[in-house]
Amino acid sequence: MDPSAVSMKPSCSSSYILPASVSTPRPRTGSSSSALPTSRPSGKCFRTRISYTPVRDPSSSIKYYRRIFTNLDFTCAAITASESESQLQTYPNQDPATKLHLLTSEFQSLSEPIDRVKRLLHYSTLLHPMDDSLKTIENRVPGCTAQVWLHVRVDRGSRVRLSADSDSEITKGFCACLVWMMDGASPEVILAMKTEDLGALNVVDLKGKGGSSSRVNTWHNVLMTMQKRIKALVPEMEGRARSDPFPSLVITAEGINANGSYAEAQARFLFPDESKVQELANLLEKKRIGVVAHFYMDPEVQGVLTAAQKLWPHIHISDSLVMADSAVKMAKAGCQYITVLGVDFMSENVRAILDQAGFHEVGVYRMSDEHIGCSLADAAASPAYMEYLGMASHSSPSLHVVYINTALETKAYSHELVPTITCTSSNVVQTILQAFAEVPNLNVWYGPDSYMGANIVELFQQMTMMTDLEIAEIHPLHNRKSIKSLIPRMHFYQDGTCIVHHLFGHEVVEKIKEMYCDAFLTAHFEVPSEMFSLAMEAKRRGMGVVGSTKNILDFITQRVQEAMDRNIDEHLQFVLGTESGMITSIVASVRKLLGSMNSTDRGSQVSVEIVFPVSSESVTKTPEVPSQDFSLGDMGDFLIKAPIIPGVASGEGCSIHGGCASCPYMKMNSLSSLLNVSRDLPNEKDKLSAYEARRFSLRTPNGNLIADVGCEPILHMRHFQATTRLPHTLIDRILQR
User: Fold this and answer.
1) What residue numbers bound the domain in which 730 lies?
2) 99 and 84 within one domain
3) Residue 662: which pLDDT band, with cuts at 50, 70 and 90?
4) Which of 144, 175, 335, 660 is an active site residue?
5) CA 728 to CA 731: how far, in whole Å?
6) Which pTM does this prediction carry?
7) Is 517 a known active-site residue?
8) Residue 66: which residues within 8 A CB-CB, separation 6 or more?
């Protein structure tokens, strides 16, 4: 303990100011938590007048003195124990909110960041040592650059007891403050605290991109982990069972572990039939067939495709935008046919883009002779959507921003009503902000995804509370004033949803809050607002991502790479807030990274857990069996040649109760269909006529070819992606209306 904390010497510093007559609480003698005394760093002291007032803690026989320092400029106060005592005491009625107020006042009184850092470093020396046996991976706090350990228990008096430590002295100072605030409080009080309550404790004031830094986020991440572990203890205290966890897959360099019957069902697709892999690769190579598939394919299909990719390179799994680009590359490489594993608007877009690129002779085939629909695309093709655009056409200047996941007809008809540009979930925010910046008084009409539209508006509203510097990091041409002014001119369609993302509902969100609040959260831009808000809150503290399937994949791989670079044992947990067909690409990418780590001499072990947030009603019930471990030895040489391919079992995972694992439309693309189409080409083209992607010969109401007009919004987006500016032709059309 710092001697000045118990000294009766009249020393104080102008950089240490507390409100007059405010006592500073102390931990109780014998507590495992740290003392947080108001010891004063050495420095210049002003002329002071000192008075002592005896005070007694009702719960203790220890005598205290309120020592008040007064001068013409300021007053500071502290509680000191009599010199015969070796440790300071805490008033029992000091709740976390009061302590937070005192701590905030203290740090805000220090105008220089370096002084706050020094104070944190001082407090780090006062944190009670944590037993080495508690410094385990299970007690690690996720999301912190430094290693942070937190142990939580509830004593017989139903009070929360905390101990913490870190291998960073500054982070240890953070922990000292939080333990001092929370130790001894009731579970209800700690669970009621929000991360926003800690916003004033920007002690270090080293803000990074987006207005946050890993050190500032330490407050929030430790609090979230603390609350998660308290929530796990409360059911035991109340004598009730805890909720079952979501199913998950744990990936390591050695193999994977499937937790829960749903995850175990996905593990069946770890072993694609090698004869089918070879047959498919031989067919594709012999007949010069390229394959473009969406991320949301059935895992059986993705498993075979991923393995066949090593034998035939013209196989690509991606989001809908890149599918068409990949098809053009395959045509340039000599492929005579392109098979599209996706919904119908994807095959139509591939057909149109190939025609635009001059590859009219390259055939494009779907995987079913039936219509492969999409709830979003169907919403945009409805009369109600055309009425929505009719309103937009009477508002000038206006721009229609349409989601890429719509039919070519929709794009064509829309573009003739209102100047239109397509977007993806990864570029929609930048597209809209750039449009507002380039066209004064613009009205933007987004559609058809209602959830994405509402989430964009919520994001803009959140931006109004950011600083101009933080907003400029999102888009350099905007500030708080411009964001506030554009919100009334931002419109979105109210009646279009993706049936997959629609089902990430209330039940799933509440379970994530209870059991996964300190995990990395990922969410597609199309999810309902509850899930979106949860992921956005995680994003603000560096623990989440909201965006496209590619954004989600990039986020996960980036966090895994960062963990590997730290070269310490670590367990990363990600909640997958999108269609779980994504797991195939995620596992392949993660295993590639972990495999590269395993090939070095590093001694650290990194494991990655992917959580499927599916509701209990959405999973087919199976008999209870132990979790399955799949080691490299069990998998044999296959795993050396191909990545692990878990995924979704057809027909499972969707429920009106919340949480959807798979898209039923995407599951119409079966492995048998792909093999049959490949076998029938090129001699059975008549038999495959119903499988061909539509080539639009129809015309719009203005007499233009649908294929020509429908491609213009896509080309406008390509121009924007290449230049970060809207094309002049589009701006001219907006201003001429």
Assistant:
1) 375-496+698-736
2) no
3) low
4) 144
5) 5
6) 0.61
7) no
8) 21, 23, 52, 53, 55, 77, 78, 79
